[in-house]
Inverse folding.
């Protein structure tokens, strides 16, 4: 590794790979860092190695094979198994690789850290045996593992349906699908449908998944609320109510999902300005049309810039890569625009489905603000009730709540409680989350020992 | 909780001083789950049982001591001879490990 590069890309998912390739293709000196051992991000995770039949995982996953292969052939410096624990606005990067810390400078940065699943807190969600649907997919793609019979899936969003479909292909017996999407959503989503028709492949895919799940005869409970997991030490049962009836299913595995939100940690640490997206109920970096953030020279691509899906992520990566090549003098204005035109058009087509999906899968208000007894911060074991107590004492926002309660100060650094804490504040103050603000994120944004820090 | 679609080779590790066979070629967290070794550890504050939640590096619930250093088990591959210690500080000794 050199001390300095023209472009450093963080993340080897579809957006990061595309940004790196687009810039490198025009002569930019590119390095790419990724935490995983192999390229593909979460979506194409382990695509080069998986022993699972690609047909079982679906067409969208299979598409990743070609994308990753092309990335492998690009002339750039690809650094797998590398964590970025530091990034500042002067574009100095702190890395951790095989237990050793290093520093690199880059003239331009593209952050493509992707998304994380939105936390889904309810009483008992910390029990072993309660995991995310994304975790289920990681186990399937990277370890060829599927649930033993009797798994329950709960929440809302396309990923939940996709996972159910994948498990059906693998012969897994699903005990129940607990859909928490509010009934009123479909009516509200309807007005976005005409615009969504230009990206009708998403709608067809959704219909296909839905039909397959129905045909398999999986008990599918709708408008589910009041989830409560019970057990000890491992999960034993899930309680819920649906259509006004309290029900209980005995199970040792519950997989949760209620959409994905941008993984903001690195962008925030670098000082990129954020904006609140009301329909998605999440923060995202403020970006220009090329993906450049409020910190000039630092770009964002893919789901980190707002959830867009893998195919649009790739296109936003290409646009960021082209703009970097232009800013560094490898592409003139006219050539950049000529190349970017069709990409922007394709990106906008994929974006057209989002308002419909955002409205259709919008989370129930009740699911955003948990009951008092629910653990909000799993690391420091702070309950929603404790947060409400300090709000009643005059605590003015999420950052002060950290100091009062240690909420968000554990090893996950707020990744699993930030979204919930800001909603509790918003609901208590009867203000939109945009006026509540968010935890600050500061380096080190990934765990590093004092010894490693001292050696860097 | 989970089963394999195909068969897996095994590696031998030490967990809290005792020898343990885990499936090879996958992440340490996946191996724990496949081997039915749950809970993987206990929370530092109330000592409540925990296991990997997100499997993609966000939640830190699978942090375990690997050859003397705390690491996220979902982010590293299980390797023959690994020396593992479960986390499990309790509220009364204030341990955060």
């Amino acid at each position: 590794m050199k001390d300095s590069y023209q472009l450093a890309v963080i993340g080897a998912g579809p957006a990061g790979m595309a940004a790196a390739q687009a810039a490198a293709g025009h002569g930019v000196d590119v390095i790419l860092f990724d935490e995983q051992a192999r390229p593909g991000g979460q979506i194409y995770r382990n695509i080069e190695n998986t022993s699972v039949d690609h047909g079982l995982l679906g067409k969208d996953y299979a598409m990743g094979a070609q994308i990753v292969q092309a990335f492998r052939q690009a002339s750039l410096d690809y650094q797998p198994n590398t964590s970025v624990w530091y990034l500042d606005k002067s574009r100095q990067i702190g890395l951790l690789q095989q237990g050793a810390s290093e520093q690199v400078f880059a003239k331009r940065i593209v952050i493509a850290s992707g998304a994380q699943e939105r936390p889904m807190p309810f009483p008992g969600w910390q029990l072993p045996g309660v995991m995310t649907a994304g975790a289920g997919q990681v186990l399937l793609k990277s370890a060829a593992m599927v649930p033993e019979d009797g798994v329950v899936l709960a929440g809302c969003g396309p990923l939940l349906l996709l996972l159910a479909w994948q498990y059906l292909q693998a012969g897994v017996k699903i005990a129940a699908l607990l859909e928490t999407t509010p009934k009123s959503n479909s009516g509200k989503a309807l007005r976005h449908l005409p615009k969504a028709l230009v990206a009708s492949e998403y709608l067809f895919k959704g219909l296909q998944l839905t039909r397959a799940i129905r045909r398999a005869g999986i008990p599918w409970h709708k408008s589910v609320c009041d989830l409560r997991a019970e057990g000890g030490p491992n999960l034993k049962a899930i309680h819920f109510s649906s259509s006004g009836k309290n029900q209980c299913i005995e199970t040792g595995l519950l997989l949760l999902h209620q959409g994905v939100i941008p993984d903001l940690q690195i962008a925030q640490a670098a000082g990129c300005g954020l904006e609140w997206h009301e329909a998605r109920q999440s923060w995202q970096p403020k970006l220009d049309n090329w993906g450049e953030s409020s910190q000039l020279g630092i770009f964002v691509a893919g789901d980190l810039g707002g959830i867009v899906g893998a195919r649009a992520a790739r296109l936003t990566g290409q646009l960021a890569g082209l703009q970097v090549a232009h800013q560094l003098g490898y592409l003139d204005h006219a050539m950049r625009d000529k190349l970017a035109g069709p990409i922007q058009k394709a990106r906008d087509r994929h974006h057209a489905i989002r308002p419909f999906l955002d409205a259709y899968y919008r989370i129930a208000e009740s699911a955003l603000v948990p009951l008092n007894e629910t653990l909000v911060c799993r690391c420091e074991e702070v309950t929603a009730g404790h947060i409400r107590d300090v709000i009643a004492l005059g605590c003015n926002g999420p950052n002060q709540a950290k100091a009062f309660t240690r909420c968000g100060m554990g090893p996950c650094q707020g990744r699993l409680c930030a979204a919930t804490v800001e909603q509790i504040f918003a609901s208590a103050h009867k203000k939109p989350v945009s006026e509540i603000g968010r935890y600050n994120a500061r380096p080190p944004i990934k765990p590093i020992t004092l010894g490693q820090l001292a050696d860097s | 909780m989970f089963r394999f679609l195909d068969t897996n080779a095994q590696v031998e590790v030490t967990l809290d001083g005792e020898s343990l066979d885990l499936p090879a070629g996958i992440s340490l967290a996946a191996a724990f789950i496949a081997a039915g070794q749950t809970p993987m550890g206990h929370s530092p504050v109330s000592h409540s049982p925990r296991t990997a939640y997100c499997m993609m590096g966000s939640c830190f619930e699978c942090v375990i001591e690997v050859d003397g250093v705390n690491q996220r088990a979902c982010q590293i591959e299980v390797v023959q001879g690994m020396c593992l210690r479960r986390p499990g500080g309790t509220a009364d000794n204030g341990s955060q490990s």
Observations:
- The domain at 119-258 of chain A is CATH 3.50.50.60 (FAD/NAD(P)-binding domain).
- The first strand of chain A starts at residue 4 and ends at 10.
- Chain A has three domains: 4-116+261-331, 119-258, 369-435.
